[in-house]
Amino acid sequence: MSELSEAQIRSFQQSRGLSITGLVDAVTARALEEAKWKLGDRSLNFQSTPLMRGDDVAALQSRLTEMGFDCGRVDGIYGQRSELAVKEFQRSAGLVVDGKCGPETIIGLLRLTRIVSGGTPSAMRESATQRNRGPALANKVIVLNPAGDDTLIYDVALRTEGRLLALGASVFLTRGVSNSPTETERIAFTNQSGADLMISLHRDSYVNELAHGAATYFYGSDAHGVHSIVGERFASLVQREICARTDLVNCRTHAKAWDLLRLTRAPAVHINLGYVTSPSDVERISRSDFRDVIAEALVIAIQRLYLAAEDDAKTGTLRIADLRKAGIRR
């Protein structure tokens, strides 16, 4: 890793959907280690700790997914769900069923791979699951992740929580007023809660105070050729609602492979509500009325995610009062 130039590191980080710093931090070092493995380089199997990670695991997951076996998210991590999918494949192919991806299993995969028309099964499953949950928020579990110890972001989370609770949703916050769990703890908390959706709230920063605006991120990896269908749609809804209701500059939506998005099992988004280094953005979010508008935009985006196309409304026009009138509440 030491022989890589800053430009090479930046190029690698960009290709992997990581934060582009030009420095080999812990996340980049792990990604470099994962990138060196190709399918067939080693035997893959489930082990308690540490789990096997690598591009070879992602390639295996992609191939199994294309064949209709449910690995869950293509994340390059050989967990129990990957082991079960391998066993199902081995059973269907008449191989020894041991959950280990060795030479015989890899040869079987290469021989039998077929593409399912109409999109990958995992994408179709994710979309179908989201549609089948219905429009009402009363049976939804929403996790809000106010990042760091930012009191204004925490206030946005509280205002969003109140509106969601009034509509009947179950809401969990990953932190309280005074505690600040690690990212790993927040991911584990979200996964254990059985969340339908995870919303991570942040403010960005930059060396130049001219940088300003809002951006939303969802799970996607060009290196692995995958992205979250529901996450991408929700990111688009959130970004459009926020920018339609406020004067925050639209910095668009982006696919990233950050751990918070990659390892959270539910569709997840990371939202930057302006820059702490931008005086104009700070002035906006410091106003309670502005934070109310953001909270309403988030709730409406959540509701629009679950509405059928024919019941949806134009961006920026739907109000929480409309949801109550329509009976989309507890």
UniProtKB/TrEMBL annotation:
SUPFAM superfamilies: PGBD-like (SSF47090), Zn-dependent exopeptidases (SSF53187). InterPro entries: MurNAc-LAA_cat, N-acetylmuramoyl_amidase_3, Peptidoglycan-bd-like, PGBD-like_sf, PGBDSf. GO terms for cellular component: outer membrane-bounded periplasmic space. One of its GO terms (molecular function) is N-acetylmuramoyl-L-alanine amidase activity. Keywords: Hydrolase. GO terms for biological process: peptidoglycan catabolic process. The keyword Ligase does not apply. Residues 187-303 form the MurNAc-LAA domain. It holds the Pfam family PG_binding_1. PANTHER family: N-ACETYLMURAMOYL-L-ALANINE AMIDASE, N-ACETYLMURAMOYL-L-ALANINE AMIDASE AMIC. This is Unannotated protein. It comes from freshwater metagenome.
